[in-house]
Specification:
Layout (H helix, E strand, L loop, with lengths): L3 H25 L6 H12 L3 E2 H8 L3 H13 L3 E5 L7 E5 L1 H21 L5 H30 L1
Helix pairs in contact: 2-4
Keywords: DNA-binding, Transcription, Transcription regulation
Pfam family, one: MarR
Protein name: Transcriptional regulator, MarR family
Length: 153
């Protein structure tokens, strides 16, 4: 049975996420990059030379969606793909100097956004909130695995 608290938690998370996405989208326009492209670019700066399969897991995007995003980032000269020396079928992905420059330009704005977002919230409340979100995420991962197991049968 779904209680109003269950509904409000899901709706609140969704509502805040949409607000953040909208705010990011509006502000990222001047950099000619979308929120999805930004998330992938940021992960690539952190994990230079990662292969596409691992990157897909890291950014939680399916292969087709990630390929589309990488194609766009490559057209914008923000990344390059190089064949893997160990596996000729795989590509390793690197950020270009231009990609690193975009990250350096955008990152302070993102930091400021998140700093403003948590302004006035005591650290202990933030820690509790992050812990609760983490537990909700774990629970959802468990449920997702159950569904995948059922679908295999």
């Amino acid at each position: 049975m779904i209680t109003s608290l269950d509904k409000s938690i899901g709706m609140s998370i969704n509502y805040v996420n949409k607000k953040i996405q909208r705010y990011l989208s509006i502000n990222l326009e001047k950099y000619d990059i979308t929120t999805e492209q930004w998330a992938v670019l940021l992960k690539l700066v952190e994990k230079e030379g990662i292969n596409q399969k691992l990157l897909s897991k890291e950014v939680e995007k399916d292969q087709a969606t990630l390929t589309r995003i990488l194609d766009i980032l490559e057209r914008k000269s923000l990344i390059i793909r190089k064949k893997s020396p160990e596996d000729r079928r795989a590509f390793l992905i690197y950020t270009t100097d231009k990609g690193k420059e975009v990250k350096e330009e955008v990152y302070p704005f993102i930091e400021k956004l998140f700093k403003n977002m948590i302004c006035g919230i005591p650290k202990d409340e933030l820690d509790l909130f992050v812990g609760v979100l983490s537990k909700i995420n774990e629970n959802m991962c468990t449920e997702e695995q159950k569904i995948k197991q059922c679908n295999k049968k």
